[in-house]
Amino acid sequence: MQAAGTYTVSVFTQVGNGGGAIASATPTVTWTVTATTPSVVAGAESTATLRLGAAATTAPFDGTVEGGDSSVVTSRVLTTSTTNLAPQASIFVVQKNTSGTNGANNARESFTVTVSGEAYVSTASSVTTRLNANTGVKSLVFAANAAGTATPVYLYSTGTAGTATVTITTASGQAIGGTKTLTFVGPVTALVLSRETVRYLPAGTSDAVTTFRVKANDANGNGVTGLTVTTTSSNTAAVASGGSCAAVSAVTSPGVYSCSLTPVITSTSGMTSTIVARVLDPADTTSTTYLTYSYGTVTMGDDVNTVTVTFDKATYEPGERMRITATAKDSSGNVPYDGALSLTLTANKSVGGTITLNTMYDGVSDTRVRSLPVRTYLADENLFAPAASGKFQVSGTFTNAAGVSTLVTASATVSDDAVTAAANAASDAALEAIDAANAATDAANLAAEAADAATVAAEEARDAADAATAAVEALAKDIADLTAGIRAQITTLANTVAKIAKKVKA
């Protein structure tokens, strides 16, 4: 069926008559089929894929899946010659019906592309001048495409740095692909730091070291691609001048250049040099003036010779976040070159997490977690003190460039946690109360014993008093008896004397 309409289908039977088939005059089966015209109206399943430059017109459009846009940041520069000019960007429109298919009989509407900002829209994949019939247009109607194919839309810069937005709408009003945004970049106006990596370079070598990144910005802060960026050195006895800065990615990091420095083979530890990145200033037509960025001082360092390991605290709560730091020196006592240290540490108690020392920078390697750029650290540590209280230790063996191995250690202490400390305090208080009760009991016992002794002493004193009283009474009686006897004797003696006196007088 090649046309829309209603069709009747009949089936006739045949019977044999011995010599041939005879067709029945009446159909055995009849049915009606209605064929409709396929819808050419595009549905929301349609796609619009934005690509940088004049990309391939068939999916996957230069390696990107259908509908997966490029990050389009492109130059504003336009040629003024009569040679062909390629578009700065392309959009590939694929129309699909509501079933999501795009076969030969499916969606194929005309559609309108509207641009605002610093871009023009065109059907041409190249133009000979900026002002030909298809250039300088901000809105353009594209004819219905062959169903199942992509219709290319080409976008050209207006010649002015800035942004542009693009919308695509079919004749039936279906928006396709949302709003597309392009950025057109002007000439470079400044170099700025994008990433700091190395500050200490290996002395006595001549191997280039990726050291830092700069970004070339235009007046709007957009990255400028396609530049030649180099470096200069203030001390060519330490670092050679003329180092190159290679573009990182025109798509993911437009305008960013990674700069490498080359140490001098005769350089020694402690030597320094000031490094400057530079690019020709496009505002100077004599090509003698540069836009610059000073990276500052880099220092030469040797291999690691000694290592000291420390904790960030002397005492931790159980499971508390902690940091371990390894500090290195080279044989001259200076900071070694960045990345020189390799040291594995183990703990004599179970710690939370894994002890992993990150790459050494500025002579220091620690257990903090780094993110990009490499000199940026996450706020939290991923290492935790043991749960068990008491002293613990980490240790590892370091072998220097001379082959001498040294054991390095560091110690810290885990204190009791609050619950344990409270329990211990309560236990100590209970023990002290028991001790006090025991002391009181002992004192009471001693007082009782003293009272008993006092009672015994009192009884003994009473007995002694009674005995003394009896003795005094007996003595008094004896004295009284003696006195009476003496008196009798005196009386007798007096009588005798009186008698004698009488006799004498007589």
Overview of the structural elements:
The protein is α+β, with helices and mostly antiparallel strands and 506 residues long. It folds into 4 domains: 6-35, no CATH class; 47-185, Immunoglobulin-like, CATH 2.60.40; 190-301, Sandwich (Immunoglobulin-like); 306-415, Macroglobulin (MG2) domain (Immunoglobulin-like), CATH 2.60.40.1930. Helix content is 17%, strand content 36%. It has one helix at 418-505; strands at residues 5-11, 14-16, 21-23, 29-35, 47-52, 73-75, 89-94, 111-117, 119-122, 139-142, 150-157, 162-170, 180-185, 190-196, 200-202, 209-217, 229-233, 244-249, 253-261, 272-280, 290-301, 306-311, 315-316, 324-329, 346-347, 364-366, 368-371, 376-381, 390-399, 405-414. Strand 29 (390-399) and strand 30 form a beta hairpin.
